[in-house]
Each structure stands twice: as C-alpha cells, then as structure tokens.
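Sanity check

After download, print the first record. It should look like this:
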Amino acid sequence: MNTFELLEIACAIVPDRPAFVAGADGEIRLDFATFRERVARLASVLSDMGVGPGDRVALMDVNTPAHAETYFASAMLDAIYVPVNFRSRVAEANHMFERTAPTVVLAGARYTGLIDSCDWFDEKTTGCIALGAGASPDGWRSYEEALEGAEPYAGYPSGDDDDTTMIMFTSGSTSVPKGVTLTHGSFTSFVLSNVEPADPDVNERNLLTVPLYHIAGVQSMMAGVYGGRTLVLQPQFDAEGWMKLVQRESVNRAMMVPTMLKALMDHPRFSEFDLSSLDVITYGAAAMPESVILEAIDRFPGVRFINAFGQTETAATITMLPPEDHDLTGTPEEIEKKRRRLRSIGTPLADIEVQIVDEEENEVPVRQTGEIVARGARLMKGYWGDDANNGVSSSGWLHTGDLGYRDEDGYIFLTGRAREIIKRGGEMISPEEVEEILERHEAVREASVIGVPDTTWGEVVHAVVAIHDGATVTEEDLIEHTRQALASYKKPDRVHFVDALPRNALGKVIRPQVKELVGGA
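Expected structure tokens:
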C-alpha cells in the first residue's frame, strides 16, 4: 500500500476537519481537503523542477505543515523524501546531501545560508525552494508563490509496499549518521495494524513537538493523517509554549521525550495551565528515569501513559508499555509488579516479531541478557549507499544493537547497547546499570558512564556527572555510593563533574561527546 492512500482515506471521511494547526497564534489552519490540494499543487511544482520516480526531495526546517505537504507530494510522484536535521552544522548537512543527492531542496529561511555553504550544493543543478514568509534568497523560489501559481497534479503514484519512500538519517549519537531506507510498507504496516482510521464522530487533537526529521515525529504524523486527527504543530519544544498550546487547542494526545516531560514538571508555571484535556501522553526515544515517570503519573492525573520503543531502522514502535501498566492501583503485590514494569519497554506489538538472542541468533532463556532483534514487514531495506551492510541478517532479523532480557510475563528490559558494554578485566559492565545507581544519589541530576582504555584492565569505568544546583558531593562519595549497590568491579574508577551532559534534540546522551569531556579517551 502506498502511504499516499493514508491521506486519501482521511480526505474521503473527514475532508472539512482541520488537519494541521500551526503558527504562533494558530493562524495557520488547514482542513484535510485543503491540505490534499496543496499537496497536489506542490507535486506539480516538484514535477516541473525535474522530480520523478526515485529522485530525492530534501527538506530542512522546524516543524511546519510543509513537512507533511512535501512528504505526500514526493509520495505522489514516487519520489523519495529526505528530512534533514535542522540542528545540523554545515559539515553534517553536507554529509546528508552528498549521500542522497536531492533533485530539490526546501528549507526554512534560517537554513538557506547554511545550505548555500555546503560543498555539495550547486544551485545550477539543484532546485531550491524557500519556506516561510518574506523575500527568498537569490536562486531560491518562494514556496507559497510556487504553490499559488501551480495547478494540482493529476497523476497518481504507482509505488507499493517494497518501494522506497523515505531516507531518514540516524541521530548520530554513537557514530556518523546513516541514511535509513524506509519503504511505504515500513509505515503502512504499523499504521494499519495500530491506528484506527478517521472517524467522523471522533476528533482527536494531537500536539506534535517531536522534530519531523525524527522517526517518532514522522510516525506521529502518519498516524495522525490516517486517523483523521488534528495535528497541532509546535516548531520547536519549549515548555511554556507547549502548555499554552494544550490549553488553547484542548489537546488530547501528545508525544514526548523524557527531557521534555521533566522540563514541563520543573517549569515554575506548570500549575497555572489547564492541561485537563490531555488523555494520552506517549513517551520514548530515550531512556525514561523511573523517578520522572512516577512524578508524571502523580502530576498528570487522569492521563494515560504509553512507553513506545523503536528506532529509525524499525520505522516505528516495536514494543509498548500500555496505560494499564502505568496505573499504580491494586493490591500491594500488583502495584509492586507495575512499578517493576515501569523500568521495561513493554511487550512486542502484534505486527512485529521481537526476540532476545545470543551471537548465533538463538533465543536465550527468560531473564538472560542478549541482543534485541526484530523481524517484520516494516523494517528498513538497508542503509542508503551501503550495499555491503543492509543491517538485516540472512534470516531476516534486524539487529538493534540494544541488549536486554525478557521476564516471565514477556516484558522486555533494556540493559545497554552492545557496542557500549564496558569490558573490564574480562567482566562485562552495562553503563546503564551504573548510571541508574549514580542517579539514585540525591545530589546527582544526571550521569553518563563510559569505558576508558587501560593497560591493566583493558577498560576501566569513568562516570561523567552533573549535580543539582546547590548540592555538594565528592568523587569519593559517588564511588562509595556505587560500591555499596554494585559489585566492586562495576564502580567508577574516576568521576568527572560537568554542568550538563551533551544531548541531541531528543534527549539522548551523545557518548562520543561525553568521551571528549574526559579528554577524548
């Protein structure tokens, strides 16, 4: 199934319902029928600029409806959409453009100069469209003027499940970003299995603040369009702006990352906003500290929480911890079991196989750690431009690189990343295990644990720690704190204090930068 049909289905059922709300004061409001027409006009513009089947169309901007319009216009032409991280520096953006060689690039006003500076860029061979209001730079066409002067594209796409529809780059938190090749089936498999189609009698309003260059943002966009939801777009997250949007638009559903959720609850004006319309908060994309989700359950009464786990290579969520496991009511035994499950990533969704395996891809017993692998219709085809490494084994399993175990009830618990495991004197140490203990100390705000080369042990444990404002703690205090809770060989040999850990836009700690903080070890 072509993803363009997701839009067609919604337009047939709820053409007059608002599809997108955007702008500083919500002044941009597009119903599904208008959105569909703008998509068709943009498809004509792109086609006239030389875009055809298999060509790439790249976009670099904060969250606006142009992301969705450009994606569906590209799908309409059987072209391939490339969302580019708007936080990229010139070298990073240049890498993505060089890898994908887009025929047309669209960009917000603040990013056109950056693109002009890329070595790859040649305005003579690449079509350029500037988004937003105001005059366009030399060589760039105005997005709105181009749409206004175009006739709707009358063609229809022929691409199906196995055809590539998007190249999405990984976060680069552990290595150079790779272009993940995703198909129409990557998205429609998830959406059709897990999202109800548009209902004329139910209008859900979804606040989308996760960046639309990230798989979580795109998943929310696809689900929102097919589900006939009104997507309220926040260009970039800020806590007070988010709360204002929930209150003004009576938002029902939101996708958050842990750092966003914590920022809301830490905001001095949190209690001043009416957030009672919220029904569902989905969180994911980075590890959720237990203390944060417990506080959120308490401070968002009546909200149903969902923990969604996946990665770019799986196109969407593969495991989920549902709302009922966040409901901390029942007998003491039931509450204790649910609290344990809050540390998990839940159980696999119905449309995907997930196993915990050893190095030979044999499934390991309950509570034994192994690598999490996934198999199903929505996995990536591979990494763009890398024919030697499609990331999927001959038996069809995608190796996620995440380590974990499954309990007796089928719930999966993460224990670390395969390539981040610290090997000290033959012993394997999970950074996450040590980080969790460090963050239990009352003085510690956040911690990251890395392995540092050592001639005696092979690697030793170093911790990089940020403490709460006004708190005091010594290196010796924290080493002893971990020694009391863990085997002695797991305790840090050194503790480095910093103001804050380096994180990407979705709150993931960027471990290469953590290593730079301790001297590039």
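If your output differs, re-run the checksum step. Summary of this record's structure: The domain at 348-418 is CATH 2.30.38.10 (Luciferase; domain 3).
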